Amino acid sequence: MTELLVTGGRVLQPDLTVERADVLVSQDSGDIVAVDDPGTLDGDDELDAENSLVIPGLVNAHTHVAMTMLRGLADDKPLGAWLREDVWPVEAELTPEDIRAGAELGLVEMIRSGTTSLSDMYFEVEEIAEAVDQAGMRAVLGFTAVTVGKDEEGARADLQESLDVAERLDGAADGRVRTTFQPHSLTTVGEEYFREFVPEALSADRSLHFHANETRDEVTPIVDEHGVRPLAYAADLGLLDGDAYIAHGVHVDDSEIDLLAETGTGVAHCPASNMKLASGMAPVQDMLDAGITVGIGTDGAASNNDLDMFDEMRDAAMLGKLAADDASAVDAGTVVEMATANGADLLGFDSGRIEADANADLAVIDLDAPHLTPAHDLVSHLAYAVRGSDVRHTVCDGEVLMRDRSVEVFDEAAVRERAAERAEALVERAES
Ligand SMILES: [Zn+2]
Question: 201 CA distance to ligand 1 centroid (A)?
C-alpha cells in the first residue's frame, strides 16, 4: 500500500472552516484515508503544504477543452456570428491530432490551476479520453450531436454516435472517465431527433448534458414555434427526466427555475463566457434558493479565454451580485462550494470534499504572496484573490499531477509547442 501525506498545511473542511491538519491519501484506492491533527499521520511519500491551503480539486462543470486551439482567434462578437463566422469554419478543419493536442494543452492549464475534474462536450472524444487518461484527471465526456444543416441520414448518425460514444467510453481511464448523451442545444437539434433518441438514452440510463437558454436568440424561436418556454419544451421531450444538467441557463424565468428544481436538473454556470459574448446574467442566487445544484464552468477557451477556475469563481460571485442587484448574493462560500462539491455532484464524482473515503482529488495553494496577505478569511481569498498560478501541487485519484509547480504527467513544453504549431497550421487551412 502506497500512501501520500500532504503535510504542514491548513485544510479547507467540507463545512468551509479551515483547520491545521495533515491529509493522508491512498494511491492504491485513490481515496482520502484520513484528515487529522498535524504530526499524527505517516505516509510513504510527502507533499509539503507549509504556508499553504489544501482545498478540494476544482471541478470545471462545462468546457470544450480542445477549444484551446482557438484561443484568441476571434473575440468581441455575439454568440451566433462568432460561431458561424469564426468557430465553425475552423472546427471543420480540426483533425483528431489537433483535438488531442488542444485537449492536452487545456488539461495542462487545468492541472496548473488546481482543476482535477471536467465536464466536456466535443467530438473525436476518444482522443480527449486518452488525454484525460494520461493527465490522471477525472472527466465526464461525450460526443456533441448537431442536426441543423444536415440531411436526415447525417443527423441520425450524429445522435447515434452520441449514444455509442457514451456507451463505449463510460468507465475508461480506470473509471475516471464517465459519459453523457449530448444533444448540442434545444435549437441546434431538430424536434423529431429528440423524440427518437432521448427515449433511447433514458432507457440506457445515460446522463444528459446540453446547452440551454444561453442567449435570448435561443429562447425566442422556441417560444414562437412551440408556444412554451425552452425548458418546458425540454421537459416535454424527456430531456429533464433522467440525470441531467444544462449548460448556461442564463435566460430562465421563474417557471423554468421551478421546473429545474422539481426535476432535479443541475446547471453549469459559465459567467465569463456569458459576459464576453454578452449573453446575459444568469439568476444564480434564485436558482440556488430554489435548491438547484449549480456548478461553475469556464466554457471553451475561445469564449473566456482561459481555463482558470479561480477567475471563474470571482466572475460568478461578481456577476451573481449584479444579476440579483444585491451585494450579498452569491457570496464567497457559495462560489467555493459551486466550484468544488456542487460541481462534483453534477458530474457524479465523490470528489469536492476533503474528508475520509472521498476521492483523493486536491490542490495545494501557496499563501506566501502579497495578494494573499493578510489572511483574515481564506474562503474570501479563494473566491476573490487566489489565482491559478498560486497552485503549488495538484493531486487526483491519489496521484501527484503537479509537484512544486512542475507538471509530472505531461512534458509541458512539448505540449505547448505541439499545440501552437498545430493551431497555426489549422488556421492557415481554414483560411485557404
Ligand atoms: Zn459550451
Answer: 21
241 CA distance to ligand 1 middle (Å)? 21
Query: Do residues 63 and 106 touch, judged by C-beta distance below 8 A?
Result: yes
**How many Cα atoms are found within 13 Å in the side-chain-facing hemisphere of 59?**
32
Joined together, the cell numbers standing for residue 411 give: 512534458
How far is ligand 1, taken at its centre, from the CA of residue 7, in Å? Answer: 38
pLDDT in tens, 213-264: 999 999 999 999 999 999 999 999 999 999 999 999 999 999 999 999 999 9
- Comparing C-alpha atoms, which of 185, 345, 360, 363 is closest to residue 279? 185
pLDDT (tens digit per residue) in 286-337:
999 999 999 999 999 999 999 999 999 999 999 999 999 999 999 999 999 9
pLDDT in tens, 119-165: 999 999 999 999 999 999 999 999 999 999 999 999 999 999 999 99
Alpha carbon of 331 to ligand 1 centroid (Å): 25
Peptide bond connecting 230 to the previous residue in cis, omega within 30 degrees of 0: no
pTM exceeding 0.90: yes
For residue 211, the cross-strand partners are 185, 247
CA of 158 to the centre of ligand 1 (A): 18
Q: What is the per-residue pLDDT for 237?
A: 98
> How many Å apart are CA 347 and CA 235, to the nearest integer?
20
78 — pLDDT class (breaks 50, 70, 90)? confident
Q: How far is the CA of 431 from the centre of ligand 1 (A)?
A: 24
- Specify which residues 395 forms β-bridges with: 362, 400
Ligand 1 geometric centre to CA of 212 (Å): 10
Q: How far is the CA of 248 from the centre of ligand 1 (A)?
A: 8
CA 186 to ligand 1 center in whole angstroms: 13
